[in-house]
Amino acid sequence: MRIFAHRGASGSAPENTLTAFQLAVQEGASWIETDVDLAACGTPVLLHDTDLDRTSNLTGPLYAYRAEELAQADAGSWFSPRFAGQPVPTLAQLVDLANEQGLNLNIELKSNEQGAGRSRLLLERTLAELGRLGEGRQVLVSSFNHLLLAELKVRAPQLRVAALFTRETFGPDWLSVLELIGAEAAHLEDSGLTRASVQALRQAGYEVNVYTVNSPARANQLKNWGVNGIFTDYPGRMLHLEG
To answer: Is 240 known to be catalytic?
Structure first.
């Protein structure tokens, strides 16, 4: 089973920071999951929320700040004073780390709220950065925005993509959705997940990865169900289940 470090080792360090990614590496993770959206200047940066209030000392939407301003932000103190001064990183910085450390990446494209033009720019800039990954690096691109994934697949058919579903959005039409996207995987919410759903997806030929799993016992159960991977805030706890 594959272990994805969810926003890095986000149970032990502030999510989506270089420190969280580096800690995941120290714990033995080979896969990093992160969220990508555009700063005001068009630079792909790593942030889960559209607003900066929860995870930094800045307020308001990401779209109001340039990458240079985000590099001066404090995205660590909210988690613990010892992480004060952590910046909001760029995708370029994560790609550099992946090349240095031999990491694989799950890039979750956020559903950009600024319209089609900026959404397409998000695709373009993200693809440009991923193109710098060294030989042997694996990439999986996921999103809750299935239209965005379908357009990505047209632009970069060589990339593997995963449709993200919540418990509520995973409906009887899942096969149609996955086929229309051209997806290779489905990423499902752990809450309410059934063995029957996992088996149906696997029998249809799809990879199944589940978020967010922090209990080793639950992770082992999912492995027995045939799940291919889990997203966890504590990768060090789960790596014994890999393979």
So the answer is: no
